[in-house]
Amino acid sequence: MAQPYVREPTATTSGAEGAHIEDTGHWLLWITGAVAAALGAVAFLLWGTRSGPYLLDLIAAICA
User: Fold this and answer.
1) Which residue ranges make up each domain of the chain?
2) Which residues cross the membrane (predicted)?
3) C-alpha distances in angstroms, 63 versus 16, 18, 23, 33, 45?
């Protein structure tokens, strides 16, 4: 049975701290991707049900 890959500690990441930082980065990427996908789905639903100008007016109202 093969041994799992273990990253060797470096000057910037050592031991458990380095693994924790690396895991946090992966979770942040997944969460960011999920939020972006959800916003994209909502935008497509609004575009299909109320048309484009409604979506653009909504964005303009939020930004103002």
Assistant:
1) 32-64
2) 27-47
3) 42, 39, 34, 22, 20
Please give the DSSP secondary-structure letter assigned to residue 12. S
2: left (phi over 0), alpha (psi -120 to 50) or beta: beta
**Other CB atoms within 10 A of residue 23 CB:** 10
For 18-58, write each residue's pLDDT tens digit. 556 667 788 889 999 999 999 999 988 888 888 888 888 98
| Rounded to 5°, angle at Cα 28 from 26 and 29 | 65
CA dihedral angle for residue 9, residue 10, residue 16, residue 18, rounded to 10 degrees: -130
- The token duo for 46 is 């609004």
